[in-house]
Amino acid sequence: MRRLGNPAGPGQPPLVSVILPVHNADLWLDECLESVLQQDFEGTMELSVFNDASKDKSMTIIEKWKPKLEGSGILVVVGGHDSPSPRGVGYSKNQAIAQSSGAYLCFLDSDDAMMPGRVRLQYEAAVQHPTSIIGCRVRRDPPGSTERYTRWINQLAPPQLLTQVFTAHGPTVIMPTWFCSRAWFSHVGPFDEGGQGVPEDLLFFYQHLRKGGGVLRVDQTLLLYRHHPHAATHSVLETTIWTHRVRFLEERALPSWTSFTIWNAGKQGRRLYRSLTAASRRKVVAFCDVDENKIRKGFYCYEGAQERPKPRVPILHFRAARPPFVLCVKLDLTGGEFEDNLRSLHLQEGRDFLHFS
Fold it and tell me: Fewer Cβ close by (within 10 Å): the C or N end of the chain?
């Protein structure tokens, strides 16, 4: 049970607002709200809930928990709407933030649950890093689901939190673990409110990086992160994410390179090449691979190009290619062969190569 903190006095905002958008979450809300109650943070807290047109028993569960939480010194603010359709995660987060008043924001999804030390440990980190998004390690539920993704979330080295921002995995600290100062959120935000199909977390993360924000992870498991077919992330098309990633790669990384090599002469590498602007394509000096059949072809011709003659890009063995590389090979899927090949070149991530897959 949470130790009774000192409720914020009249006119005094709480230190931390837990931001909780809710849409049809009655399966998980009891455990989620119990985890708020169990926080061992001794500063002042509030819970800001925004109900996005739930049609199940979510509001009944929230009203049941409100006196329990307030009896433990956690102010509860509840907003929402009962329109026929939800307005989306970005809108709901923005509304929950607008009705809250804490100096720091702790984001929580209604299908997840926090470990007791989450608010305390992330608050301590955020005070030291006021322009950073603070994340944490997670425990996936059910166990064993999305093993590669979970390993990536939990095992990125600190420098990789900034160098691996272009991959298909999205933000290098995942949205349900975010914690940041309200002042920094206001400087970067708000979230995009385009609704279903918009990757509002990825767009905010990119804007955060554009503004010079840092990325930090508390290396303790502080969140039970659920995987289920109804999660909002499943509503975002892969092609939408791909387009945003390519544009961000062109904006952030490629301007500092006069030329580069795409590592993978197969489907993903060619797709990246075709997705680039003509100016970026002209910087591609080669594809590289280990597949002798692809290498024997000698070159890739982009038939869809407007230029005449059509671009013909050499295909080389990776040892004959020169950095920097954009890597279009998924990690953990080649039995370690790709990782061994990459290590053998003694390259520096960020300077000599970037992961894109």
Answer: N
User: Average pLDDT of the chain?
Assistant: 94
**Average pLDDT rounded to a whole number, residues 168-178:** 97
Q: Which of 144, 111, 128 is nearest to 223 (CA)?
A: 111
Which residues lie below 8 Å from residue 222, measured CB to CB, with a gap of 6+?
A: 114, 115, 117, 118, 121, 122, 136, 137, 138, 177
The mean-pLDDT minimum among 15-29, 224-238, 247-261, 305-319 falls in 224-238
Count CB atoms within 10 A of the CB of residue 319.
10
Q: Are strands 312-317 and 299-301 parallel, antiparallel or unpaired?
A: antiparallel
CA pair distance 203, 248, nearest whole angstrom: 10
How open is the CA angle 257-263-268, to the nearest 5 degrees? 110
> Around Cβ 13, how many Cβ atoms within 10 Å?
16
Give the rounded percent of residues in the chain with a pLDDT score beyond 90: 85
Which DSSP state fits 326? E
Identify whether the C-beta of residue 136 lies closer than 8 Å to the C-beta of residue 118. Answer: yes
Is residue 152 within 8 A of residue 161, CB to CB? The reply is no
Contact 135, 177 (CB under 8 A): yes
- The Cα–Cα gap between 182 and 177 comes to 15
User: Beta-carbon neighbour count of residue 317 at 10 Å?
Assistant: 13
Model confidence band, residue 331 (pLDDT cutoffs 50, 70, 90):
confident
CA proximity to 188, closest of 203, 160, 165, 208: 208
DSSP-assigned letter for residue 349: B
